[in-house]
């Protein structure tokens, strides 16, 4: 199997979209879009994020030892594109703070974490974070599937149209 076939197969798994943020040296906030995020444990409360070895965020996370996961709402595709580097703009991003760490306002969930361990596997580093605080809002999620953004409402409308035929 080649890398394109593998990437295509992995794209068949619908995921939410997150922005990972960290603060370095007390006032320098860095972020990146990621869908490689998962809950690991309820006791203790742990999550994992996966960061590629060539991504600038890797050294920032190693230096800060802390991060936040911001689960994006369906109307926040632009934020995802900004933090993925796919949308170049002069928009200044406003941050809120949770547990002394930067978070994005208006997201579905803000999760504040301290790195408890990291594990290198393949071309990525897995950061395991102890969850210190959470803020949750009730909204529809932004979804990434098959290489594009979509929403639950969009998928429901397609499903209803198919049932009507």
Portion in beta strands: over 45%
C-alpha-based Rg, rounded: 17 Å
What shape does the CA trace take?
globular
Judged by helices, strands and strand pairing, the structural class is alpha+beta
Give the strand tally: 12
Residues in helix, %: 10-25%
> With helices defined by DSSP (H or I, 4 residues minimum), what is the helix count?
4
Order of helices and strands: HEEEEEHEHEEEEEEH
Looking at the overall shape, the CATH architecture is Roll
Q: Within the CATH hierarchy, at the fold level, what is the topology?
A: Pnp Oxidase, Chain A
Q: Low-confidence spans: pLDDT under 50, at least 5 residues?
A: none
CATH superfamily: Electron Transport, Fmn-binding Protein, Chain A
How would you state the average pLDDT, rounded? 90
What strand line-up does the widest sheet have?
Answer: 3-2-6-9-10-5-4
What does this entry show, briefly?
With 165 residues, the protein is of the alpha+beta class. The chain is built from four helices and twelve strands, in the order H-E-E-E-E-E-H-E-H-E-E-E-E-E-E-H.
Provide an overview of this structure.
The strands form 3 sheets. A 7-stranded antiparallel β-sheet has the order 3-2-6-9-10-5-4. The chain is built from 4 helices and 12 strands. It is globular. It has helices spanning 3-10, 57-64, 77-84, 152-164; strands spanning 15-16, 18-24, 28-34, 37-42, 45-52, 66-71, 96-98, 101-103, 109-121, 124-136, 142-145, 148-151. It has one domain (3-164): Electron Transport, Fmn-binding Protein, Chain A (Pnp Oxidase, Chain A), CATH 2.30.110. By secondary structure, the protein is α+β, with helices and mostly antiparallel strands. The mean pLDDT is 90. Helices cover 22% and strands 46% of the residues.
């Amino acid at each position: 199997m080649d890398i394109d076939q593998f990437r295509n197969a992995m794209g068949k798994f619908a995921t939410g979209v997150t922005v990972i943020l960290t603060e370095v040296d007390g006032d320098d906030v860095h972020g990146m879009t990621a869908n490689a995020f998962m809950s690991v444990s309820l006791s203790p409360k742990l999550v994992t994020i996966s960061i590629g070895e060539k991504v600038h965020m890797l050294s920032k996370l190693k230096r800060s030892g802390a991060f936040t996961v911001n689960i994006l709402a369906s109307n926040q595709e632009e934020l995802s594109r900004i933090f993925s580097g796919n949308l170049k703009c002069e928009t200044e991003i406003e941050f809120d703070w949770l547990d002394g760490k930067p978070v994005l306002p208006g997201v579905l969930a803000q999760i504040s974490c301290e790195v408890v361990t990291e594990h290198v596997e393949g071309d990525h580093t897995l950061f395991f974070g102890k969850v210190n605080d959470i803020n949750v809002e009730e909204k529809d999620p932004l979804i990434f599937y098959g290489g594009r953004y979509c929403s639950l409402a969009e998928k429901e409308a397609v499903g209803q149209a198919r049932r009507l035929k």
